[in-house]
Amino acid sequence: MNRYDKLSQSVVAIMFLLLIGFVLVLNLILPKREFSEAENRKLEQLPAFSFHSFISGKFTTNFEKFITDQFVARDVWVGVKSNADQAIGKKESNGVYLGKDGYLIQKFAEMKKGELEEKIQSINAFHTVTPELNKYVILAPTAVSVLQSKLPKYVSENRELDALHTVKTSLISSIRYVDVYPALSSHQNESIYYKTDHHWTSKGAYYAYQQLGREMGFKPMKEEEFEIRTVTEDFYGSLYSKSGFRNLHSDSIDLYVPKNEGKVTVDYVEEQQSANSMYMMGNVKKKDKYTVFFNGNHSLIQIKTSHREGKKLLVVKDSYANSFVPFLTSHFSEIYMVDLRYYEGDVAALARQHQIHDMLILYNMNTFIEDPSINHLTNKEG
Amino acid sequence: MVFSSLIFLYLFLPITILIYFIAPNQLRNATLIVASLVFYAWGEPVYIFLMLFSTVIDYGYGLLIDKYRHRKRTAKALLVCSLVGNLGILGFFKYYGFLVENINSLFGLHVEVTTLPLPVGISFYTFQTMSYMIDVYRDKVPVQKNLIAFGTYVTMFPQLVAGPIVAYGDVARQLTLRKITLSRFGEGTQLFVRGLAKKVLLANHIGMLWSSIKATPASDLTVASSWIGILAFTLQIYFDFSGYSDMARGLGKMFGFELTKNFNYPYISTSVSEFWRRWHMSLGSWFREYVYIPLGGNRGGIAKQLRNLFVVWFLTGLWHGASWNFIIWGLYFGCFIVIEKLFLYKWLQHLPRVMGNLYTLLIVMVGWVFFDLDRLPAALAYLGAMFGLHTYHFADNNTYYYLSTNLVILLLAILAATPLPKKMFSALKQRYPIGSAILSPILYVLFLFLSTAYLVNDTYNPFLYFRF
Known about the structure:
The complex is a heterodimer of chains A (382) and B (468).
Chain A: H1 3-29, E1 35-36, E2 41-42, H2 51-55, H3 58-69, H4 74-87, E3 92-93, E4 96-98, E5 104-106, H5 115-129, E6 134-140, H6 143-146, H7 159-170, E7 176-177, H8 181-186, H9 202-216, E8 226-235, H10 238-243, E9 251-258, E10 264-268, E11 273-275, E12 300-305, E13 311-317, E14 332-338, H11 347-353, E15 358-364, H12 365-370
Parallel strand pairs in A: 6-7, 6-15, 13-14, 13-15
Antiparallel strand pairs in A: 1-2, 3-4, 4-5, 8-9, 10-11, 10-12, 12-14
Chain B: H1 6-22, H2 28-43, H3 48-67, H4 72-107, H5 122-137, H6 147-155, H7 157-160, H8 168-176, H9 182-215, H10 223-254, H11 272-278, H12 281-295, H13 302-320, H14 324-350, H15 353-372, H16 376-386, H17 397-416, H18 420-431, H19 433-456
Helix pairs in contact in B: 1-2, 2-6, 3-4, 3-5, 3-6, 4-5, 6-8, 9-10, 9-17, 9-19, 10-15, 10-16, 10-17, 12-13, 13-14, 14-15, 15-16, 18-19
């Protein structure tokens, strides 16, 4: 103990008191936020007090969530943590890897026993009751399988490809399984997945579209036949929010617009709204810029193209299809996009009603594993 | 409420400090009690009444035992009554389910058990009040006639929920006489911030590594991965618990209390006996003072001593949880203590310190497997992985991944578990007294900032010793 010890301790005391007092006051007087852009979620508000909610512990839990969510300069603290984590060598957070070259890569979902088999069964069962409907299945591998060179050192992931193989060998043979992995894999050094989002880029979707063309028998358009428009360079996507990693480069979103641009009518059936474009351009100003494609996910979207002699196509999908379907407008006269997470009708009846003879099931493998809605294929209305 | 939370740091604590230091001296104990009740009720809105009931009853018993002190048999009966009452409450809330399960399997019955949630801190405050009553009976401490002062002893929030278990004699005088200076408050702050950093920056981080490895089926683990995993837990539980104890002591100091130290660099021990003199010291003292010595301690021959040790270690294990793995854990250490007392300790004295240290760490780490893997088959499976019974692989890509992404935090944690940083800073202070006097507050503020950043991201902030 030297004579400076007491002084040093007194300084610590004063600084501590000032800090906690200051933060308390700031937290009390600053206005509360409703929504976090960076985390893409609503922030907890002051919970209502009631005797019952206090006794059950609900009030205290929500109050603490409220304090944490509304903490002054929250985004700054999140950034500090992210930098500290990266400094000590952390390579994953919240189920997202921090890969090389600034790639955020989602970890493959945990598979529960029997769930995959159940889903394959649902598709097979649906095919058995709709044999007249030509079926094509695209289950897109995600970045964790295709961009293995970008994964952190020592990480490898085979489960997704193994699961894809299981699907391929278990589907009824008259269902055409369209394997897009080779196409994507051969272009893995190009920008085919977003760095901060779990979706494939338009370029990635393009290569998958080419593969579908070869299987379905239409001639896919060459890249030169498109005008590639960059609509934003500031896209920070889902994985950016989920992981909390900061100081990363943003993504660009490109639209592949055919040079011979035809007219398109897009009907959002349940919402009873219409548009003459597949793109909601205003959404590039929002946080989730991927919603520029079809304004996000809807239960049923009906697209009528200027290609009047073409066939009709039914697409049962997740959000990967949103940047994929625009490539199909030159090959079909009508495209019906069904999202089983929202659509409650009878898919088979829908196909019959509109005399559709071709159907595409398009999911990314991660969502296919995590989401149970494919089991609703055989739902009957009512 | 937990110390390592934003609501405690930036709402409860500043308000409590403000009110406490504004209040006149005579009202300070009452203020502390009120704050402590708010603190406790926040996490335990129903069982707070149990704690209050317990406190008032034991206060009453203390008075009665003192009153009938000269009537030996009455005083003894009162003491027994109070102990049975306290142990009864503890037993009912904590051990009832365990007891019924075992009776069921012994006699093939199927008695229904509705397990009640465990009131927070019950193992700590009941042990505290029992120590008070025993010491009053023994005339070791003066009885506390002031209910407010007694209430302060039991409920004060720094030690209410997770210890250290404070013997009444250690704080008796401080209940009515406390002198707080700015530099002493600062000393408390330093201790508190160190504890906070241990918990939030070290324990929580390493805990994530252990969680990943623990979740892997034991048959998929390589030998190296399983050792990395248990090393992670070994560090996690130390920093978690000692961090919390440091925060408790720091807070106590801020309000003028000197609370007992609970940890003294346990992982540098060179024998298991030494380990238990450095780990959770207040619990060890309690069992020594109120169980081992009354039973006869090491007097009365070897057989009696072994029996006494068996009882103490059985109870130590049982205190940690109502489950066989904890009892086994306690007895496991009991065995090694006995072996050391019989001959091993003398052997160890002849060996270099490093050997003793490695031996101790090995025994302790294997012990932790039983502690945290609460199903016996899982614990045995994990040990199997550690000793290469499932696999011929020493390491795989997962091992390298765990190691490479956690190397810095593991090294920092291992370093922080030794007295080395303290010695280095002392040496620095000697050479550069002014420089280090300036550096020190900056470092503490940095720790506070960093801890706050991690708490704002609070998705993973468990406190392991909370279930006691």
